[in-house]
Structures are given as C-alpha cells and as structure tokens.
Amino acid sequence: MSQVAGAKLAHENPAIADLSNPNRPTKVGEKNSQLYDNEWTEAYTALLKDENSASDEKLTGYLYSILIDSYRFCEGVRKTQKKRLEDILFHPAVNMESGLISQMKDLSEILAKHLSDATKMSGDVASLNMVQAFAVDKDMKTKHGKRMQQCKAFIEECVKLCWLMHVQTPPLCIDTKTTKGEHLEKEKYKEYTRKGQKIAFVVWPALFLHEKGPLVAKGVAQGE
Hints:
The chain is mostly helical. It folds into 2 domains: 22-170, no CATH class; 172-224, Nucleotide Exchange Factor Grpe, Chain A, domain 2 (Roll), CATH 2.30.22. Helix content is 60%, strand content 9%. It has helices at residues 2-10, 25-50, 56-90, 98-121, 123-136, 138-144, 147-150, 152-166, and strands spanning 173-174, 189-191, 199-204, 207-208, 215-217, 219-223. The model has no long low-confidence stretch (mean pLDDT 87). This is Mitochondria-eating protein.
C-alpha cells in the first residue's frame, strides 16, 4: 500500500521535483531561454536578410508561430503515445473480474509513475524522432515551405524543447492567450525593443509549470 500511496503522491505532482531527471521543468525552462537567446536570434537574422522589407512584427510573428506549431504538434503526438502505452499496460484484456479491476487500479498508479519517469528520461532521444516527424509532416511543410530549411536549426530546437515540455507530468504550458492590446505584465514578460504599458505584439511566450501554474520562464513582448 505504501508503494501505491507514494506513486499517487508523486505522479502528476509538479511540486515534487525529480532532481535526477536532466529534463526536469527548471532545466526545460533554461533550455527555453537559451533557445530564444541563440537559435531564435540566428533565425531572425536569416529571415531579415531574405526579407529586409518585412516589419519586425511580421518576422518575430513568424518565429512565434513556429514555436506554437511545434508545441501543438508535440502535444498531439504525446497524447497518442500516452494512450497507446496505457492501453498496452493497463487494458490487455477486454473483460476482467471485478477483483482484478480493483487490483489493476492500484497497479496502474505505480506503473503510470514508472512509465512517466521512463518517458522523461528518454526525452532527448525521442525528441530527435519528433524533429524528423515534424520535418515530413504534410501540414507543416505546406505552412512553412522554404523556411523549413531557412530556419532549420531553430525549428529543430523548438520541436525538441516542446517535446520535453509535453513529457512532464503535467505538461509545461506556454502562454498562447496573451495578445495585442493587453496590459504588459512585467512579472511575466520582458520588454523587447520598446517599453510600454500595453502589448503591441508577443515575441516569445511565457512558460508555466502547468496550466494556471507558476511561472518557469518569462516571455518577451513589444511594448506600446
């Protein structure tokens, strides 16, 4: 019983950090900031050379859309993966006696915790597969076209990062709700190149520990 209780306490409890996990939320937050500082800057520079007449809002908006698309793509794959794994482990037979069902519920708490841990630990390897899947996805190729190659390094790091967000239990959450015209909350967003009380456009979204959870990494927004 103590093992079941421990599994219930630890599983999907973001307040309990596994310090042995190199891809724990705080580390993902650091990678998020590094991506913006490094690959984002390189991708922006590449786009600016090719589209020097484009506005800053348009260029940053495109890079923002890549991150959002990566996040949603990984979200869909992760949900499918989780369902398949749970079906294999927890529902191997369609019909079970009531006593067995009760035992399976206790066992599932333990297995779910181990399954979650294994998924996190294999996150770096699995993220490489996600990069390949994103690159050949028909919808992504149609939407991003030649920029798939132009911003290749940035896209790859976005997909890797977003996969690591989604293997957390619960998943890390990026802010997709903050939009133009809203108050610029400086505890959540850094100012881009211009200060202001309101948001002109979001450059990079804030990152949270989970939906409606505490802040992991500040976003970047243009003030007006």
